[in-house]
Amino acid sequence: MRVLVVSHAHPSLSLGGAEVASYNLHKGLRACEGVDTHYLARVGAPTPRHGGTALMSMRQLGGEFLYYAEDYDHFLISNRATEEIERDFVRVLRDLKPDVVHFHHFIGLGLECLFAARDALPDATIVVTFHEYLSICHHHGQMVKTGAFKLCYRASPAECNGCFPDISPARFLARENFIKGILGLADHFVSPSQFLADRYQDWGLEPQRFSVIENGLDVASVAPPRTLPEPVAEEPAPRRSRFAYFGQLTPYKGADVLIDAVTRIPDSVWGEDSILLVYGGNLERQPQAYQDKFAKLVEAAGRRVRFCGAFQNHEMPNLMRSVDWVVMPSVWWENSPIVIQEAFFHGRPILSSNLGGMAEKITDEVDGLHFRSGSPEDLVDCMVRALTEPKLWDRLRAGIKQPLNHVDCAARHVELYQQLIAGRGMPMPEGRAATPMIA
Fold first, then answer.
1. Element of type H or E holding 175
2. pLDDT value at 439 more than 60
3. Would the pLDDT of 107 be above 60?
4. Are 358 and 193 in contact (CB under 8 A)?
């Protein structure tokens, strides 16, 4: 079976959760017997383009190549450079002749690539993995109202026009029809969370065309629990008092809620041993009002918060060595953040907002604690429990289940591919020799 995994970016150039998930699938498929896997990732500025073709090789990595795409319409998730799709993207499809084309995203590439795959390979099986609500929501796929951080419970042309008054309901209806029409060419959809799948089904996609498969994690070693200092007579017993935030410093991620909560914890509870480690960046790219709010909160938090800057995924095992608790204060319906899998892989309980995929993946009082989204007061209660409740960390750590690894994830995908191929009445593809990388 030959599989082409298509991603909106390569993790060596853009290290986001969806990029990592798509690449982990590709790596997992390489470990599956009888599977010949290839990986195509979109690239754009500031990476320079190679000559007159959109295709760019990853010469150090066999079976992987880049596709340059910049002429992009964010509203329609559309690529205006259709002549390049017809010439270069279709060339990849016809040269490889994959049995399965798996789109792990199409942002930047454009939905036209999905249409091209169906047109060029009418007998191929096409699978789409969703990572957020971009097809439904023009507001960065967040399902959060513009102007105020209120969750959006229902997308419709009228509701969307309320968020974007300069775009008419008729245009939003046309957008919805266009996107649904292209998605209708796919054979199947994969969602890493049931919550996300339910949202797309409520939007109008058929439930029978969905499978829920968690993204696979590829981490080599487990970070042991942080070593606590030896107890000293007549001093407070050492405790699990190190909290960490991993993620971008955007309004949607709720880091401001977390820092606000830290400032509210009484000194008698916080003590001298507690600290919040913030691993994240891109604050300078956020709206000025948010930057100003964040700066005031940071000033109030003082020495309770330590900013450690952005991080790379390969650093996570080492960073986890100094962490007891991971906090996820997002104020939007996250799908399946990779931070959850990483924290659980290393045996760290999570304090999380009670929303979406976070509430689905983290079980309250079993492997973590939930707090009301956007409420620093409720988060204070959770953090106070973490600092004062005896054996809470040990109990929640014992409730953690190991996340799905990338090889097992790939095996589940291969099983799905086989079912889909059989369901279309196509002969089951036999093992094929690896195809040389497209130059």
1. helix 169-183
2. no
3. yes
4. no
Side-chain-facing half-sphere of 375: CA atoms under 13 Å: 16
Structure tokens at 138: 């023009």
Instruction: End-to-end CA distance of the chain: give it in Å, rounded.
Output: 22
**Residue 60: per-residue pLDDT:** 59
Beta bridge partners of 244: 277, 326
Q: What domains does the chain contain, in order, with CATH numbers?
A: 2-216+404-423 (3.40.50.2000), 242-398 (3.40.50.2000)
Residue type, 356: G
Distance CA 321, CA 227 (A): 8
Q: What is the mean pLDDT of the segment spanning 373-390? A: 97
In this predicted structure, the answer to whether residue 349 has a pLDDT above a threshold of 50 is yes
> One-letter amino acid identity for 348?
R
Render 25-85 in DSSP notation, one character per residue.
HHHHHHTSTT-EEEEEEEE-TTSPP-TT-SEEE-TTSTTEEEEE---EETTTTEES-HHHI
Q: How far apart are CA 411 and CA 373, in angstroms?
A: 35
Task: Quick: pLDDT tens for 278-304.
Answer: 998 888 989 899 999 999 999 999 999
Token pair listed for 88: 């270069």
Q: Is 318 left (phi over 0), alpha (psi -120 to 50) or beta?
A: alpha
Average pLDDT of the chain is 93
Other residues' Cβ atoms within 10 Å of the Cβ of residue 13 = 15
Q: Which phi and psi (to 5°) does residue 151 adopt?
A: -65, 140
Residue 177 is encoded by which pair of tokens?
């029809």
**Residue 36: beta bridge partners?**
2
What phi and psi, each to the nearest 5 degrees, are found at residue 433?
-65, 150
